[in-house]
């Protein structure tokens, strides 16, 4: 069948909205008609080369090329067709995507760490996770990748059944797209990795989609004081709507604020979620973290950043924890449904996070708005729900 998608042909972009050819799903695969796709910084990092490399560079190293590829990993949609052996989904089912595939059988899945599933490791390697071949093709017949094995910036896509989570049909599909990345990543960073509990003081650095998810996670789990740190005034004000009790423009300003709020104790948990984490962000975040506290790095960093400088003696003797996380250390098959329930009971705000809806053809304008700090979460609305 023919469909349309936003495609990256190499590092630097722009996104090119064009028709492509899509094969039917094979064994273990599902054809999804997309309802909505969230605009995440991760896809822009691929465009800019923070998480990718130009085709010419990869070829010179004898490595498989990544481009052309369909963008998007945060999405929701409706199942239209299933391949052989797929029993957990049927046409008409409503689903959200999981950019970390979950096989359910590897060591990590078996021990409750689906977010580290072996099947999800090759998320940026082109080809289907089922057999390594391609279902997406350019109009000229060239193999076409799909970011995170999802390709949510497409009207239709074929994904592995392992990359989908079924949701209740009464759940609105457009806000449900945020359950595919922004919410579990942010919420889980605060709650699962940061261990936020009632009465805690929490700092969230970066108040975009992920940061807003972290702020809500801290609020829902009883944090007494939540400080949102962001240089954009619009995002500072927005954070207060989602549960932040205070805001600051930068880490230096937050340091004085948190010191005053906690009588010098500092924050129980710090979630670092700017668009791109720098070594200075890590250093500053650890200064904001109390003795025995946890600092969680949930944003992405440039692949050229290999080390950070920190006060090692303070880090050791103050018993601090510096933690990484992927997908907010969430287990998609269980946690997406749990988070959806929080939304249905009006505890988790999803609709309010969507600052603006866009058409697929407006994807470049949408990312310009994101990079200019004008939106919390933008969503491509395909108009099927």
UniProtKB/TrEMBL annotation:
<keyword id="KW-0479">Metal-binding</keyword>
<feature type="domain" description="Enoyl reductase (ER)">
    <location>
        <begin position="13"/>
        <end position="297"/>
    </location>
</feature>
<dbReference type="GO" id="GO:0004022">
    <property type="term" value="F:alcohol dehydrogenase (NAD+) activity"/>
</dbReference>
<dbReference type="InterPro" id="IPR013149">
    <property type="entry name" value="ADH-like_C"/>
</dbReference>
<dbReference type="GO" id="GO:0008270">
    <property type="term" value="F:zinc ion binding"/>
</dbReference>
<dbReference type="GO" id="GO:0051903">
    <property type="term" value="F:S-(hydroxymethyl)glutathione dehydrogenase [NAD(P)+] activity"/>
</dbReference>
<keyword id="KW-0520">NAD</keyword>
<keyword id="KW-0560">Oxidoreductase</keyword>
<dbReference type="Pfam" id="PF08240">
    <property type="entry name" value="ADH_N"/>
</dbReference>
<dbReference type="InterPro" id="IPR002328">
    <property type="entry name" value="ADH_Zn_CS"/>
</dbReference>
<dbReference type="InterPro" id="IPR011032">
    <property type="entry name" value="GroES-like_sf"/>
</dbReference>
<dbReference type="InterPro" id="IPR020843">
    <property type="entry name" value="ER"/>
</dbReference>
<dbReference type="GO" id="GO:0046294">
    <property type="term" value="P:formaldehyde catabolic process"/>
</dbReference>
<dbReference type="Pfam" id="PF00107">
    <property type="entry name" value="ADH_zinc_N"/>
</dbReference>
<protein>
    <recommendedName>
        <fullName>alcohol dehydrogenase</fullName>
        <ecNumber>1.1.1.1</ecNumber>
    </recommendedName>
</protein>
<comment type="similarity">
    <text>Belongs to the zinc-containing alcohol dehydrogenase family.</text>
</comment>
<dbReference type="InterPro" id="IPR036291">
    <property type="entry name" value="NAD(P)-bd_dom_sf"/>
</dbReference>
<dbReference type="InterPro" id="IPR013154">
    <property type="entry name" value="ADH-like_N"/>
</dbReference>
<dbReference type="GO" id="GO:0005829">
    <property type="term" value="C:cytosol"/>
</dbReference>
<keyword id="KW-0862">Zinc</keyword>
<dbReference type="InterPro" id="IPR023921">
    <property type="entry name" value="ADH_Zn_actinomycetes"/>
</dbReference>
